[in-house]
Design a protein that fits this description.
Layout: E1 10-11, E2 17-22, E3 35-39, H1 42-48, E4 56-59, H2 70-85, E5 90-94, H3 99-111, H4 116-126, H5 135-142
Parallel strand pairs: 2-5, 3-4, 3-5
Antiparallel strand pairs: 1-2
Helix pairs in contact: 2-3, 3-4, 3-5
Length: 147
Amino acid sequence: MTSTHLTGAIELPDGTRVRGRGLRDPAPTGPEPEHGLYLGGTRLRKRHDHTITWPHEWVRWPDFLLPRDSAEAVARIRELHGYARAGHRVEVACHGGKGRTGTVVACLAVLAGVPREEALAWTRTHYDRHAAETPWQRRWVLRFPTA
């Protein structure tokens, strides 16, 4: 664990930091994450897993849809928040960095104290204005369990 922040990381309301990004873009310069959560299917994993040299998890989450296993996704999102709260450099990413990644950033905002019904607006202001691209992704944030 180190205090150097990831390039492009945002600060959640509880003071934790997380970087969201798209795997299709070049990796940002600066320090590497200490833990990552990656969202996608087998093809995305095959394309990028060998480039991710730090501890990480994958959640099977098709583009524009919801995770294949919601309970696993919730557990991984909570785990990522725990790493961030402990001061680790963390990132979350999918192919484009908007829909799935934006949905997870909104869920992290909920865990950081933002009310569910405000989490999407907070994420669109602080992360990306196109976060959580589909109606079902937006509903998933509204139903994200905090406990």
